[in-house]
Write a structure and sequence with these properties.
about 80 residues; mainly alpha; about 85% helix
Amino acid sequence: MTSSTRTFESNRLVASDGLVQTVHGSWLTLAQSVRWLSFWAAIALPLLSLSALYLGESGLFLVLLGVQLLALRVGHDYTNTDQ
């Protein structure tokens, strides 16, 4: 293996590590955004659910209830990191 081949391989590994860190950071940002959205959806959905129940839309009420339960599960681990 020549010196230029070793240098090329080293550069490729460094670039690969940078790509892995970028993808990992993007994944964490996406996961935090989904948790944030789910947390606030779980708070807001009861208002829509009560409105649907008041209007007699029992099917819509059940769908919103299911979505709220899913949002509660996904948004449960949300913590505000801006403090």
